[in-house]
Amino acid sequence: MSIAAHPLYDSQLVSRRASGNADLNRTLRRTREKLSSRGGVSDSYGRELLAQHAASVQAAAVVLPLPVILTGSALSVFTGPAMAMMWTLFALASHLGLVLIARRFSARPGDSIDVRRWSRLFLLGHVVAGLSWAYLATLSCEACGPMRFEIFQFTVIFLAVAMIAMISYTLKGVVPLTFVPTGLLVVVAIMSSPQPVTGTMQVVLLGAVPFFSIVAERLRRSALDRMKHQAEKDDLIAELETAKIVSDEARRRAEDANLAKSRFLATMSHELRTPLNAILGFSEVIGKEILGPVGNPAYKEYVDDIHASGQHLLGLINEILDLSRVEAGRYNLNEEAVELVPIARDCLAYIRVKADAKELEVRAEFEKDLPAMWADERSLRQIVINLLSNAVKFTPRGGKILLRVGWTAGGGQYVSVSDNGPGIPEDEIPIVLSSFGQGSVAIKSAEQGTGLGLPIVQALVKMHDGTFELQSRLREGTEAIAIFPNSRVLEVMEALDEIA
């Protein structure tokens, strides 16, 4: 992930959507500032690095005087108390100055900090502190035994280089600048030293400065990478929070709009059906010539077309209103003890006329002695009629339809309607189960429908705590199964797995 700002990242939208979340606002503001940098280290990263450096200096202020005092005490053995006291006071004073700079930095507001100015001020403090180690490098002890003072001098300065590198690595260039005077003095000592052992230690000491400089720079870059990764994570979290806020708002609006639509359609039942019933009634009176002959045969054909269109429109309105009432939560179930097999027989007789007109073979397989279910009889009839009507509608002439009613493996009951029609492609099944959705093959090979039959079945089965399954293979047929749970059956049969 790049740390550059995303092109779709709308800061105004984020600020508006997340106005109630103070933590999110702060994260977004901080992240935008960090990701606005083009190359190098942005001011935000620089301030964080300086803040870490200041914290390290203040934390080291507790323990740093101890090694300085111990070094001064050991130095008094070689150079005398006066010289050692001077060095100790200077070293402590220079490090105290660093601590004061760090405290002053920490007391300032973060947005008002000039990164370059404070970086130079910290580096200057380290250079001054480094003069104490440079002074230690110039000392010598002629009265000491061979190599005793040189080893002490080498050890102390080497540890000082390592200590500064570990404490102050977040400040770029701190190690080389702190020990530049010390390095120059060591180079002079190497050139003038007649002893190879002393010269070797001085060469090692000289090489320790660039080595620990590289180590400190690697640590600094690692800390910077961690900050960038944290900024990317904060940015991702902020984007996810923003997307969630926007999606929640969009979902709420969509739900409100859908509920308003469903309520509107559910309350329009009387207003739509009343004039439509008048159209159907008057067209039927005129078509049957109850009040007298029409006189013109063409008018009678027109009246029959009006009546047929009105019936089609009434069926469409009824289906839309039924689905809308279910979605609006205004479809009430009048539950009672009903038997599924007699309902299925009645529905089969209802659609048999249409099936015979298409020369369809309709068979039924009913499980014997099925107990009653606790359900809404009107809803069960609509479920079975819709499934059978769909099968009759989409099965070609001379096809076969099978209606089955029986037990499920879990002790519930099911209604299954299968046919050998054109079938539905697998990727179109979700479309068929959506409102007004139809499969492409079925549309070409069957009479036109509204596409609401299966969604209504699915909604009614769900209201009965059941599940609806649609299984189909292209050019082989379709099977629609409405499954009702065993909690609806008044005499529950043991599940098959329990019998086993």
Automatic annotation (TrEMBL):
<feature type="transmembrane region" description="Helical">
    <location>
        <begin position="57"/>
        <end position="78"/>
    </location>
</feature>
<feature type="transmembrane region" description="Helical">
    <location>
        <begin position="84"/>
        <end position="101"/>
    </location>
</feature>
<dbReference type="Pfam" id="PF02518">
    <property type="entry name" value="HATPase_c"/>
</dbReference>
<feature type="transmembrane region" description="Helical">
    <location>
        <begin position="151"/>
        <end position="167"/>
    </location>
</feature>
<dbReference type="InterPro" id="IPR003661">
    <property type="entry name" value="HisK_dim/P_dom"/>
</dbReference>
<feature type="transmembrane region" description="Helical">
    <location>
        <begin position="199"/>
        <end position="219"/>
    </location>
</feature>
<dbReference type="InterPro" id="IPR005467">
    <property type="entry name" value="His_kinase_dom"/>
</dbReference>
<feature type="transmembrane region" description="Helical">
    <location>
        <begin position="174"/>
        <end position="193"/>
    </location>
</feature>
<protein>
    <recommendedName>
        <fullName>histidine kinase</fullName>
        <ecNumber>2.7.13.3</ecNumber>
    </recommendedName>
</protein>
<dbReference type="GO" id="GO:0000155">
    <property type="term" value="F:phosphorelay sensor kinase activity"/>
</dbReference>
<dbReference type="InterPro" id="IPR036097">
    <property type="entry name" value="HisK_dim/P_sf"/>
</dbReference>
<feature type="domain" description="Histidine kinase">
    <location>
        <begin position="267"/>
        <end position="488"/>
    </location>
</feature>
<keyword id="KW-1133">Transmembrane helix</keyword>
<keyword id="KW-0902">Two-component regulatory system</keyword>
<dbReference type="InterPro" id="IPR036890">
    <property type="entry name" value="HATPase_C_sf"/>
</dbReference>
<dbReference type="InterPro" id="IPR004358">
    <property type="entry name" value="Sig_transdc_His_kin-like_C"/>
</dbReference>
<dbReference type="Pfam" id="PF00512">
    <property type="entry name" value="HisKA"/>
</dbReference>
<keyword id="KW-0418">Kinase</keyword>
<keyword id="KW-0808">Transferase</keyword>
<keyword id="KW-0472">Membrane</keyword>
<keyword id="KW-0597">Phosphoprotein</keyword>
<dbReference type="InterPro" id="IPR050736">
    <property type="entry name" value="Sensor_HK_Regulatory"/>
</dbReference>
<feature type="transmembrane region" description="Helical">
    <location>
        <begin position="121"/>
        <end position="139"/>
    </location>
</feature>
<dbReference type="InterPro" id="IPR003594">
    <property type="entry name" value="HATPase_dom"/>
</dbReference>
<keyword id="KW-0812">Transmembrane</keyword>
